[in-house]
Amino acid sequence: MRILMLGWEFPPFISGGLGTACYGLTKAMDQLGMEVVFVLPAMVESKYATHVKLLTPSSHRSATSFKFSELKNVRFHAISSALQPYSTPDVYRQRIEESLRQKQKMRGGNVSSASQLMAPIDYSGNMYAEVHRYAAVVAELAANEEFDIVHAHDWMTYPAGIAVAAISEKPLIVHVHSTEFDRSGENVNQTIYDIEREGMERASKVIAVSYFTRSIIIGRYGISGEKVEVVHNGVERNDNNDWSLAETGIDKDEKIVLFLGRITMQKGPEYFLQAAKKVLEVMDNVKFVMAGSGDLMHRAIEMAAELGIGHKVLFTGFLRGEDVQKIYKMADLYVMPSVSEPFGIAPLEALNNDVPVIISKQSGVSEVLIHALKVDFWDVNEIANKIIAVLKYPPLQETLANHGNVEVRKLQWKDSAAKCVKIYEQTLVAV
After folding, report:
1. Do 16 and 68 have their domain in common?
2. Could you give the C-alpha distances from 90 to 65, 100, 314, 317, in angstroms and in order?
3. What's the pLDDT tens digit per position in 160-176?
4. 210 backbone dihedrals φ, ψ, rounded to 5°
Protein backbone atom coordinates (compact mmCIF):
# COMPACT_ATOMS: atom_id res chain seq x y z
CA MET A 1 0.00 0.00 0.00
CA ARG A 2 1.23 3.50 -0.85
CA ILE A 3 0.38 6.47 1.38
CA LEU A 4 0.80 10.16 0.56
CA MET A 5 1.33 11.68 4.00
CA LEU A 6 1.06 15.41 4.61
CA GLY A 7 2.59 16.96 7.72
CA TRP A 8 3.83 20.30 9.02
CA GLU A 9 6.94 19.14 10.90
CA PHE A 10 9.32 16.21 11.12
CA PRO A 11 12.83 15.63 12.53
CA PRO A 12 15.24 17.36 12.61
CA PHE A 13 12.72 20.22 12.84
CA ILE A 14 10.43 19.55 15.80
CA SER A 15 8.51 22.24 17.62
CA GLY A 16 5.94 20.09 19.38
CA GLY A 17 4.28 16.72 19.78
CA LEU A 18 3.08 16.71 16.17
CA GLY A 19 6.59 16.17 14.81
CA THR A 20 7.30 13.44 17.36
CA ALA A 21 4.04 11.69 16.46
CA CYS A 22 4.66 11.95 12.72
CA TYR A 23 8.12 10.48 13.11
CA GLY A 24 7.01 7.60 15.35
CA LEU A 25 4.05 6.73 13.15
CA THR A 26 5.99 6.96 9.87
CA LYS A 27 8.88 4.89 11.19
CA ALA A 28 6.47 2.18 12.37
CA MET A 29 4.67 2.15 9.01
CA ASP A 30 8.02 1.78 7.29
CA GLN A 31 8.70 -1.30 9.45
CA LEU A 32 5.29 -2.69 8.46
CA GLY A 33 6.32 -2.42 4.81
CA MET A 34 4.06 0.49 3.90
CA GLU A 35 5.36 2.83 1.19
CA VAL A 36 5.09 6.43 2.36
CA VAL A 37 5.74 9.73 0.58
CA PHE A 38 5.87 12.48 3.22
CA VAL A 39 5.51 16.13 2.17
CA LEU A 40 6.77 18.94 4.47
CA PRO A 41 6.59 22.73 4.20
CA ALA A 42 10.22 23.35 5.14
CA MET A 43 13.58 23.15 3.43
CA VAL A 44 15.91 20.82 5.31
CA GLU A 45 19.35 22.42 5.37
CA SER A 46 22.37 20.12 5.28
CA LYS A 47 23.77 21.49 8.56
CA TYR A 48 20.69 20.08 10.34
CA ALA A 49 20.46 16.90 8.30
CA THR A 50 23.19 14.82 9.93
CA HIS A 51 20.99 11.72 9.81
CA VAL A 52 19.33 12.50 6.49
CA LYS A 53 20.47 11.32 3.09
CA LEU A 54 19.78 14.04 0.52
CA LEU A 55 18.59 12.83 -2.87
CA THR A 56 18.25 14.51 -6.26
CA PRO A 57 15.99 17.60 -6.13
CA SER A 58 12.56 17.06 -7.63
CA SER A 59 11.43 18.71 -10.84
CA HIS A 60 9.54 21.37 -8.91
CA ARG A 61 11.80 24.29 -8.09
CA SER A 62 10.43 24.83 -4.58
CA ALA A 63 10.72 21.24 -3.37
CA THR A 64 13.58 18.97 -2.40
CA SER A 65 13.51 15.20 -1.90
CA PHE A 66 15.41 13.58 0.93
CA LYS A 67 15.46 10.30 2.80
CA PHE A 68 16.29 9.08 6.28
CA SER A 69 18.78 6.25 6.05
CA GLU A 70 16.85 4.15 8.60
CA LEU A 71 13.54 4.49 6.72
CA LYS A 72 13.65 2.08 3.79
CA ASN A 73 10.18 2.62 2.33
CA VAL A 74 9.77 6.34 3.00
CA ARG A 75 10.54 9.30 0.74
CA PHE A 76 10.19 12.97 1.63
CA HIS A 77 9.47 16.18 -0.25
CA ALA A 78 10.43 19.34 1.64
CA ILE A 79 8.72 22.41 0.22
CA SER A 80 10.64 25.62 0.84
CA SER A 81 8.65 27.91 3.08
CA ALA A 82 8.99 31.25 4.83
CA LEU A 83 7.41 29.62 7.88
CA GLN A 84 9.07 27.53 10.53
CA PRO A 85 7.60 24.07 11.13
CA TYR A 86 4.41 23.99 13.21
CA SER A 87 3.86 27.73 12.75
CA THR A 88 0.56 27.96 14.57
CA PRO A 89 -0.95 31.25 15.78
CA ASP A 90 0.72 31.03 19.20
CA VAL A 91 4.10 30.88 17.46
CA TYR A 92 3.27 34.01 15.48
CA ARG A 93 1.94 35.72 18.59
CA GLN A 94 5.27 35.02 20.30
CA ARG A 95 7.18 36.53 17.35
CA ILE A 96 4.98 39.61 17.36
CA GLU A 97 5.48 40.03 21.11
CA GLU A 98 9.24 39.89 20.65
CA SER A 99 9.06 42.45 17.86
CA LEU A 100 6.93 44.82 19.95
CA ARG A 101 9.26 44.49 22.91
CA GLN A 102 12.30 45.29 20.79
CA LYS A 103 10.57 48.37 19.36
CA GLN A 104 9.59 49.55 22.82
CA LYS A 105 13.12 49.13 24.10
CA MET A 106 14.48 51.10 21.15
CA ARG A 107 12.00 53.88 21.91
CA GLY A 108 12.83 53.81 25.61
CA GLY A 109 9.27 52.91 26.53
CA ASN A 110 8.01 50.53 29.17
CA VAL A 111 7.73 46.89 28.21
CA SER A 112 4.13 45.75 28.30
CA SER A 113 3.16 42.46 29.89
CA ALA A 114 2.42 39.50 27.67
CA SER A 115 -1.25 39.62 28.58
CA GLN A 116 -1.48 43.25 27.40
CA LEU A 117 0.11 42.32 24.10
CA MET A 118 -2.25 39.42 23.47
CA ALA A 119 -4.87 41.39 21.55
CA PRO A 120 -6.42 39.69 18.51
CA ILE A 121 -3.88 39.53 15.68
CA ASP A 122 -4.43 38.95 11.98
CA TYR A 123 -2.15 36.12 10.86
CA SER A 124 -3.57 35.86 7.37
CA GLY A 125 -0.73 37.78 5.75
CA ASN A 126 1.71 34.92 6.23
CA MET A 127 0.43 31.70 7.72
CA TYR A 128 -2.76 31.22 5.75
CA ALA A 129 -1.03 32.18 2.52
CA GLU A 130 1.65 29.57 3.20
CA VAL A 131 -0.95 26.91 4.06
CA HIS A 132 -2.64 27.42 0.72
CA ARG A 133 0.66 27.69 -1.17
CA TYR A 134 1.64 24.39 0.42
CA ALA A 135 -1.66 22.94 -0.82
CA ALA A 136 -0.98 24.11 -4.38
CA VAL A 137 2.55 22.68 -4.45
CA VAL A 138 1.41 19.37 -2.92
CA ALA A 139 -1.30 19.05 -5.55
CA GLU A 140 1.34 19.50 -8.26
CA LEU A 141 3.73 17.03 -6.62
CA ALA A 142 0.95 14.47 -6.18
CA ALA A 143 0.38 14.40 -9.94
CA ASN A 144 3.75 12.65 -10.28
CA GLU A 145 3.26 10.20 -7.42
CA GLU A 146 1.44 6.89 -7.18
CA PHE A 147 -0.53 6.37 -3.97
CA ASP A 148 -3.64 4.66 -2.67
CA ILE A 149 -4.65 6.99 0.13
CA VAL A 150 -3.98 10.52 1.45
CA HIS A 151 -3.20 10.99 5.17
CA ALA A 152 -3.17 14.63 6.40
CA HIS A 153 -1.94 15.63 9.87
CA ASP A 154 -3.63 18.61 11.59
CA TRP A 155 -5.41 21.60 10.07
CA MET A 156 -2.45 23.17 8.24
CA THR A 157 -2.38 20.27 5.78
CA TYR A 158 -6.14 19.79 5.37
CA PRO A 159 -6.49 22.15 2.36
CA ALA A 160 -3.69 20.20 0.65
CA GLY A 161 -5.34 16.89 1.51
CA ILE A 162 -8.71 18.06 0.18
CA ALA A 163 -7.11 19.28 -3.07
CA VAL A 164 -5.11 16.10 -3.67
CA ALA A 165 -8.05 13.82 -2.85
CA ALA A 166 -10.30 15.73 -5.26
CA ILE A 167 -7.78 15.63 -8.11
CA SER A 168 -6.64 12.04 -7.60
CA GLU A 169 -10.03 10.66 -6.51
CA LYS A 170 -8.24 8.86 -3.68
CA PRO A 171 -9.67 8.64 -0.13
CA LEU A 172 -8.62 11.27 2.41
CA ILE A 173 -7.84 10.46 6.04
CA VAL A 174 -7.40 13.43 8.39
CA HIS A 175 -5.48 12.91 11.64
CA VAL A 176 -6.50 15.27 14.46
CA HIS A 177 -3.66 15.83 16.92
CA SER A 178 -5.17 19.06 18.25
CA THR A 179 -8.24 21.20 17.66
CA GLU A 180 -8.74 24.96 17.73
CA PHE A 181 -10.71 24.50 20.97
CA ASP A 182 -7.64 22.92 22.58
CA ARG A 183 -5.39 25.77 21.46
CA SER A 184 -7.72 28.73 22.02
CA GLY A 185 -10.47 27.66 24.40
CA GLU A 186 -13.75 29.36 23.52
CA ASN A 187 -11.99 32.20 21.67
CA VAL A 188 -11.53 30.17 18.50
CA ASN A 189 -10.05 31.53 15.31
CA GLN A 190 -12.99 31.16 12.94
CA THR A 191 -10.82 30.67 9.85
CA ILE A 192 -8.90 27.79 11.45
CA TYR A 193 -12.12 26.26 12.77
CA ASP A 194 -13.65 26.38 9.28
CA ILE A 195 -10.58 24.70 7.77
CA GLU A 196 -10.67 21.99 10.43
CA ARG A 197 -14.37 21.34 9.96
CA GLU A 198 -14.13 21.21 6.16
CA GLY A 199 -11.21 18.78 6.39
CA MET A 200 -13.16 16.49 8.70
CA GLU A 201 -16.30 16.71 6.56
CA ARG A 202 -14.42 15.96 3.32
CA ALA A 203 -12.44 13.07 4.82
CA SER A 204 -13.49 9.46 4.44
CA LYS A 205 -12.28 8.82 7.97
CA VAL A 206 -11.10 11.00 10.88
CA ILE A 207 -8.42 9.70 13.23
CA ALA A 208 -8.45 11.23 16.74
CA VAL A 209 -5.52 10.78 19.11
CA SER A 210 -7.87 10.12 22.06
CA TYR A 211 -11.51 9.67 23.04
CA PHE A 212 -11.21 13.10 24.65
CA THR A 213 -10.48 14.56 21.19
CA ARG A 214 -13.10 12.36 19.54
CA SER A 215 -15.80 13.88 21.75
CA ILE A 216 -14.72 17.39 20.71
CA ILE A 217 -14.79 16.40 17.02
CA ILE A 218 -18.32 15.02 17.35
CA GLY A 219 -19.70 17.70 19.69
CA ARG A 220 -18.00 20.83 18.35
CA TYR A 221 -17.60 20.03 14.65
CA GLY A 222 -20.76 17.98 14.07
CA ILE A 223 -18.93 14.96 12.65
CA SER A 224 -20.69 11.60 12.79
CA GLY A 225 -19.28 9.28 15.44
CA GLU A 226 -19.19 6.43 12.90
CA LYS A 227 -16.60 8.36 10.95
CA VAL A 228 -14.20 9.04 13.84
CA GLU A 229 -11.67 6.40 14.92
CA VAL A 230 -9.33 6.65 17.92
CA VAL A 231 -5.64 5.78 17.58
CA HIS A 232 -3.59 6.57 20.68
CA ASN A 233 -0.01 7.73 20.27
CA GLY A 234 2.98 5.61 21.20
CA VAL A 235 6.48 6.38 22.47
CA GLU A 236 10.02 5.66 21.31
CA ARG A 237 11.85 3.47 23.79
CA ASN A 238 14.86 5.24 25.33
CA ASP A 239 17.64 3.08 26.73
CA ASN A 240 20.35 5.74 26.80
CA ASN A 241 21.34 6.53 30.37
CA ASP A 242 24.39 8.66 29.55
CA TRP A 243 23.91 12.18 30.81
CA SER A 244 25.62 14.86 32.81
CA LEU A 245 24.43 17.84 34.87
CA ALA A 246 25.19 21.14 33.23
CA GLU A 247 25.82 24.29 35.25
CA THR A 248 22.21 25.04 36.02
CA GLY A 249 22.45 26.64 39.43
CA ILE A 250 20.67 23.63 40.93
CA ASP A 251 22.17 22.10 44.07
CA LYS A 252 22.57 18.34 44.14
CA ASP A 253 20.25 18.04 47.14
CA GLU A 254 17.47 20.01 45.44
CA LYS A 255 14.47 18.28 43.92
CA ILE A 256 13.53 19.19 40.36
CA VAL A 257 9.94 19.49 39.18
CA LEU A 258 9.68 19.76 35.40
CA PHE A 259 7.21 21.45 33.05
CA LEU A 260 8.12 20.61 29.44
CA GLY A 261 6.04 21.87 26.55
CA ARG A 262 4.90 24.98 24.74
CA ILE A 263 4.28 27.79 27.23
CA THR A 264 0.80 28.63 25.97
CA MET A 265 -2.68 28.88 27.40
CA GLN A 266 -3.40 25.28 26.39
CA LYS A 267 -0.60 23.88 28.56
CA GLY A 268 -1.63 25.65 31.80
CA PRO A 269 1.70 27.26 32.81
CA GLU A 270 -0.01 29.60 35.29
CA TYR A 271 -1.39 26.61 37.23
CA PHE A 272 2.09 25.10 37.37
CA LEU A 273 3.48 28.31 38.87
CA GLN A 274 0.61 28.74 41.33
CA ALA A 275 1.15 25.17 42.53
CA ALA A 276 4.91 25.82 42.74
CA LYS A 277 4.22 28.75 45.08
CA LYS A 278 2.21 26.49 47.39
CA VAL A 279 4.85 23.74 47.34
CA LEU A 280 7.61 26.20 48.25
CA GLU A 281 5.61 27.32 51.27
CA VAL A 282 6.10 23.78 52.61
CA MET A 283 9.41 22.67 51.03
CA ASP A 284 12.40 24.86 50.24
CA ASN A 285 14.77 22.39 48.54
CA VAL A 286 12.86 22.38 45.23
CA LYS A 287 13.52 24.00 41.87
CA PHE A 288 10.87 24.26 39.19
CA VAL A 289 12.09 24.04 35.59
CA MET A 290 9.98 25.31 32.69
CA ALA A 291 11.41 23.93 29.46
CA GLY A 292 9.86 25.30 26.30
CA SER A 293 8.82 28.49 24.56
CA GLY A 294 5.54 30.08 23.58
CA ASP A 295 3.42 33.19 23.59
CA LEU A 296 3.02 33.15 27.40
CA MET A 297 6.70 32.72 28.23
CA HIS A 298 7.30 36.36 29.18
CA ARG A 299 4.08 36.41 31.17
CA ALA A 300 5.21 33.25 33.00
CA ILE A 301 8.53 34.90 33.88
CA GLU A 302 6.70 37.96 35.17
CA MET A 303 4.26 35.78 37.11
CA ALA A 304 7.08 33.85 38.82
CA ALA A 305 8.54 37.17 39.94
CA GLU A 306 5.16 38.48 41.11
CA LEU A 307 4.63 35.31 43.17
CA GLY A 308 8.04 35.83 44.80
CA ILE A 309 9.43 32.52 43.49
CA GLY A 310 11.53 33.83 40.60
CA HIS A 311 14.72 32.50 42.21
CA LYS A 312 13.17 29.04 42.36
CA VAL A 313 11.97 28.83 38.74
CA LEU A 314 14.31 28.24 35.81
CA PHE A 315 13.33 28.90 32.18
CA THR A 316 15.40 26.93 29.66
CA GLY A 317 13.74 28.05 26.41
CA PHE A 318 13.00 25.53 23.67
CA LEU A 319 14.92 22.24 23.91
CA ARG A 320 15.45 19.48 21.36
CA GLY A 321 17.35 16.23 20.96
CA GLU A 322 19.86 15.33 23.67
CA ASP A 323 18.93 18.36 25.77
CA VAL A 324 15.42 16.95 26.20
CA GLN A 325 16.83 13.64 27.41
CA LYS A 326 19.14 15.45 29.84
CA ILE A 327 16.35 17.48 31.36
CA TYR A 328 14.24 14.35 31.88
CA LYS A 329 17.18 12.61 33.54
CA MET A 330 17.60 15.55 35.91
CA ALA A 331 13.93 15.65 36.91
CA ASP A 332 12.39 14.07 39.99
CA LEU A 333 8.85 14.70 38.78
CA TYR A 334 7.08 15.81 35.60
CA VAL A 335 3.88 17.86 35.78
CA MET A 336 1.48 18.47 32.86
CA PRO A 337 -1.39 20.75 33.99
CA SER A 338 -2.87 21.12 30.50
CA VAL A 339 -6.22 22.87 30.18
CA SER A 340 -7.12 20.81 27.10
CA GLU A 341 -4.65 18.21 25.85
CA PRO A 342 -5.73 15.99 22.93
CA PHE A 343 -3.12 13.42 23.93
CA GLY A 344 0.20 14.50 25.46
CA ILE A 345 3.33 12.61 24.44
CA ALA A 346 5.62 14.28 26.99
CA PRO A 347 4.30 12.26 29.99
CA LEU A 348 5.12 9.06 28.08
CA GLU A 349 8.62 10.36 27.40
CA ALA A 350 9.02 11.23 31.09
CA LEU A 351 7.98 7.75 32.22
CA ASN A 352 10.23 6.34 29.52
CA ASN A 353 13.04 8.05 31.42
CA ASP A 354 11.84 6.76 34.82
CA VAL A 355 10.31 10.09 35.85
CA PRO A 356 6.93 9.88 37.65
CA VAL A 357 4.18 12.11 36.27
CA ILE A 358 1.26 14.23 37.38
CA ILE A 359 -1.17 14.86 34.51
CA SER A 360 -4.42 16.74 34.10
CA LYS A 361 -7.63 14.78 33.80
CA GLN A 362 -8.37 16.98 30.78
CA SER A 363 -5.90 15.04 28.61
CA GLY A 364 -6.04 12.11 26.22
CA VAL A 365 -2.99 10.47 27.75
CA SER A 366 -4.93 10.01 31.00
CA GLU A 367 -6.96 7.40 29.10
CA VAL A 368 -3.95 5.12 28.66
CA LEU A 369 -1.96 5.71 31.87
CA ILE A 370 -2.93 4.03 35.13
CA HIS A 371 0.23 4.67 37.13
CA ALA A 372 0.07 8.44 36.98
CA LEU A 373 -1.35 10.93 39.44
CA LYS A 374 -4.29 12.74 37.85
CA VAL A 375 -5.66 16.17 38.75
CA ASP A 376 -8.05 18.79 37.43
CA PHE A 377 -5.86 21.44 35.80
CA TRP A 378 -7.47 24.25 37.83
CA ASP A 379 -7.02 22.58 41.23
CA VAL A 380 -3.66 24.07 42.21
CA ASN A 381 -4.04 22.91 45.81
CA GLU A 382 -4.35 19.29 44.69
CA ILE A 383 -1.46 19.68 42.23
CA ALA A 384 0.70 21.07 45.03
CA ASN A 385 -0.34 18.32 47.45
CA LYS A 386 0.55 15.62 44.95
CA ILE A 387 3.91 17.24 44.13
CA ILE A 388 4.76 17.35 47.84
CA ALA A 389 3.68 13.73 48.32
CA VAL A 390 5.90 12.47 45.49
CA LEU A 391 8.93 14.51 46.59
CA LYS A 392 8.59 13.68 50.29
CA TYR A 393 7.90 9.96 49.96
CA PRO A 394 10.53 8.11 47.87
CA PRO A 395 8.54 4.81 47.85
CA LEU A 396 5.65 6.61 46.11
CA GLN A 397 8.02 8.21 43.62
CA GLU A 398 9.70 4.88 42.90
CA THR A 399 6.41 3.00 42.51
CA LEU A 400 4.99 5.57 40.08
CA ALA A 401 8.22 5.62 38.05
CA ASN A 402 8.73 1.86 37.88
CA HIS A 403 5.14 0.84 37.17
CA GLY A 404 4.69 3.77 34.79
CA ASN A 405 7.81 2.76 32.89
CA VAL A 406 6.49 -0.78 32.45
CA GLU A 407 3.17 0.69 31.33
CA VAL A 408 4.63 2.88 28.57
CA ARG A 409 6.57 -0.05 27.12
CA LYS A 410 3.20 -1.39 25.99
CA LEU A 411 2.38 1.82 24.11
CA GLN A 412 4.25 1.21 20.88
CA TRP A 413 4.10 3.11 17.62
CA LYS A 414 3.86 -0.17 15.70
CA ASP A 415 0.45 -0.76 17.28
CA SER A 416 -0.65 2.79 16.38
CA ALA A 417 0.58 2.27 12.82
CA ALA A 418 -1.19 -1.08 12.52
CA LYS A 419 -4.48 0.56 13.57
CA CYS A 420 -3.98 3.27 10.94
CA VAL A 421 -3.30 0.65 8.28
CA LYS A 422 -6.48 -1.19 9.26
CA ILE A 423 -8.41 2.08 8.85
CA TYR A 424 -6.81 2.52 5.40
CA GLU A 425 -7.86 -0.98 4.36
CA GLN A 426 -11.43 -0.52 5.58
CA THR A 427 -11.66 2.83 3.79
CA LEU A 428 -10.36 1.44 0.49
CA VAL A 429 -12.83 -1.45 0.62
CA ALA A 430 -15.69 0.99 1.23
CA VAL A 431 -14.77 3.24 -1.71
Report:
1. yes
2. 29, 15, 22, 15
3. 999 999 999 999 999 99
4. -165, 165
